[in-house]
TrEMBL record:
Transmembrane segments: none annotated. Keywords: Cytoplasm, Cytoskeleton. Belongs to the thymosin beta family. This is Thymosin beta. It comes from Caerostris darwini. InterPro entries: Beta-thymosin, Beta-thymosin_sf. GO terms for biological process: actin filament organization.
Amino acid sequence: MLPLQYPHLIWNLKMSSPTKTELPKVPTPLKNELAQFDSSKMKHAETLEKNQLPSNDDVQQEKVHNSILTGVEGFERSKLKSTETQEKGVLPNADVIQQEKGHQKLVQGIENFDTSNLKHAETQEKNPLPTKEAIALEKSAA
């Protein structure tokens, strides 16, 4: 049994409406303040709906999605036919093997290349830049 300090819970347990005497009392100062309240002093505020309803396209997409899910969930395995899996391992032919061997020889030749057999070479510039005198001569001619 509930103690008497929780009378507001008792009427909830009875599943009936409380009587007037069982309702909580509003303090007199608060009652007077509410009676004297002037609603014209309140500021106007626009209500913005932040939880907008979905569009027709959204509803249709969800219906399609749900129908796919129910189709997958309700699928009967007894309708499936059993099959044998045939694995076909395709081996390379002789041409592919020879090509791969040639590629491996080329890679080994590059990896094992001896740089000590190389000769030193001088780089010759075939398109030299003009000298300061040539640039000055062209400026004076223009």
